[in-house]
UniProtKB/TrEMBL annotation:
<dbReference type="Pfam" id="PF00005">
    <property type="entry name" value="ABC_tran"/>
</dbReference>
<dbReference type="InterPro" id="IPR017871">
    <property type="entry name" value="ABC_transporter-like_CS"/>
</dbReference>
<keyword id="KW-0813">Transport</keyword>
<dbReference type="InterPro" id="IPR003593">
    <property type="entry name" value="AAA+_ATPase"/>
</dbReference>
<dbReference type="InterPro" id="IPR003439">
    <property type="entry name" value="ABC_transporter-like_ATP-bd"/>
</dbReference>
<keyword id="KW-0067">ATP-binding</keyword>
<dbReference type="InterPro" id="IPR027417">
    <property type="entry name" value="P-loop_NTPase"/>
</dbReference>
<dbReference type="GO" id="GO:0015418">
    <property type="term" value="F:ABC-type quaternary ammonium compound transporting activity"/>
</dbReference>
<comment type="similarity">
    <text>Belongs to the ABC transporter superfamily.</text>
</comment>
<dbReference type="GO" id="GO:0005524">
    <property type="term" value="F:ATP binding"/>
</dbReference>
<keyword id="KW-0547">Nucleotide-binding</keyword>
<feature type="domain" description="ABC transporter">
    <location>
        <begin position="1"/>
        <end position="234"/>
    </location>
</feature>
<protein>
    <recommendedName>
        <fullName>ABC-type quaternary amine transporter</fullName>
        <ecNumber>7.6.2.9</ecNumber>
    </recommendedName>
</protein>
<dbReference type="GO" id="GO:0016887">
    <property type="term" value="F:ATP hydrolysis activity"/>
</dbReference>
Length: 382
């Protein structure tokens, strides 16, 4: 996208000399306050809106030189509230584009069934009508419909804004999975900075008047906001959010203060001999049950009910420092519990140690994350 401007007939400049290089096979998020020109930008990509000035190239070819129908066929389009055809079944909604392309009924429906599975929809919903589905399910149908003809590009305009936070998280996770499996080039519009940081490989922050404020990978955005507007838009908890990009792998986990529910008096005494104020009790399988002070534990008489809750554990190595910190903050003992992929206790770690790791990571990454250098920062589970 090279110096693209959109001036509506009434004189409103919705987009002002916008230049963006949208990377192939990744998710680019356009984010910014209401009215900053996100939707206009997205619609110029599939020519629902024609630019007043500037050029948009797709794979090096000017989109103005391509027939609109051919262009749109190469781009799936998903909008808020899914925009489904209310009088068609779910299966027929998804099969719309293949049918238009003359695929034939059976082949189109087979493709639609395959897509229902891909977007996490139960096949039993195929014969229902949109009004018989929840908002989240309708949104999944919208994504499936956009993917039906296997377009290389997917344009998504606030697709998850109308659903509740839990459903929204599910839809976001699903989109990341689909992107990983199918390698689509996705342009995604949102006004939610958390969504932008979670989904974007690259994030374009726009400001009112259709100006580009910053275009960067999310880790760089959080570490080096270009100006006061971007910093303000990222919000006061930018530092905490940034921890999502630091892995917990380097944390030193202690296993000595862990005892099984059927531990002997010697084992409890040995575990309590260290300088940790609490012991983590696990079941016989090694899964955490809760915390206790060592002197409160009597061999053979440990009851899960007497233990302090351990809150939510983090997955050792896989989860981020943000997740580890969250566990420690929520834990009544101030210690976080790390588990392995099977949910067995892998170790415990104090707030203090997590704090030191955070300081270390900030210092180390500070040098790394200068503009142009942050591409190296890998996203880890939030
Ligand atoms: N058809 C139109 N005619 C005139 N002005 C328009 C038209 N469509 C949009 N605008 C204006 O252009 C500006 C950008 O609108 P756009 O819908 O692209 O913003 P947005 O960032 O997507 O906003 P939102 O987050 O509220 O959807 C706004 O000031 C809007 O009022």
């Amino acid at each position: 996208m090279d110096s693209v401007t959109k001036r509506y007939p009434d004189g409103t400049v919705a987009v002002d000399r916008l230049s963006l290089e949208i990377p192939d096979r990744s998710i680019t998020v356009l984010v910014g306050p209401s009215g900053c020109g996100k939707t206009t930008t997205l619609r110029m990509i599939n020519r629902m809106v024609e630019p007043s000035e500037g050029t948009i190239l797709l794979d090096g070819k000017d989109i103005q030189q391509q027939p609109v129908n051919t262009l749109r066929r190469s781009m799936g389009y998903v909008i808020q509230n899914a925009g489904l055809f209310q009088h068609r079944t779910i299966l027929d909604n998804i099969a719309t584009v293949p049918r238009m392309l003359g695929w034939g009924k059976e082949k189109s429906r087979a493709r639609a069934r395959e897509l229902m599975e891909r977007v996490g929809l139960d096949g039993a919903l195929a014969k229902r009508y949109p009004y018989q589905l929840s908002g989240g399910q309708q949104q999944r149908v919208g994504v499936a419909r956009a993917l039906a003809a296997d377009p290389p590009v997917l344009l998504m305009d606030e697709p998850f804004s109308a659903v509740d936070p839990v459903v929204r998280k599910g839809l976001q996770d699903e989109l990341l999975r689909i992107q990983e499996e199918l390698g689509k080039t996705i342009v995604f519009v949102t006004h939610d900075i958390d969504e932008a940081v979670k989904l974007g490989t690259m994030v374009a922050v726009m400001r009112t008047g259709g100006h580009l404020a910053q275009f960067a990978p999310p880790a760089e955005l959080l570490s080096h906001p270009a100006d006061a507007f971007v910093e303000d838009f990222l919000g006061a908890d930018r530092g905490i959010r940034r921890l999502s990009f630091f892995p917990s792998a380097g944390l030193e986990l202690l296993t000595a203060p862990i005892v099984a529910v059927d531990a002997t008096a010697e084992q409890i005494a040995a575990a309590g001999a260290g300088d940790t104020p609490y012991l983590l009790v696990t079941d016989q399988d090694g899964k955490p049950l809760g915390w206790s002070e060592p002197q409160e534990l009597t061999a053979g008489e440990i009851k899960a009910g007497q233990l302090l809750s351990y809150g939510r554990p983090f997955v050792a190595g896989t989860d981020s420092l943000r997740a580890a910190l969250d566990c420690a903050v929520l834990s009544p003992t101030g210690w976080a519990v790390a588990v392995d992929a099977e949910g067995r206790a892998a170790g415990v770690v104090s707030q203090q140690v997590i704090g030191e790791a955070i300081r270390g990571a900030h210092a180390e990454r500070g040098a790394d994350a200068k503009p142009g250098g942050a591409g190296k920062v890998q996203k880890v589970a939030p």
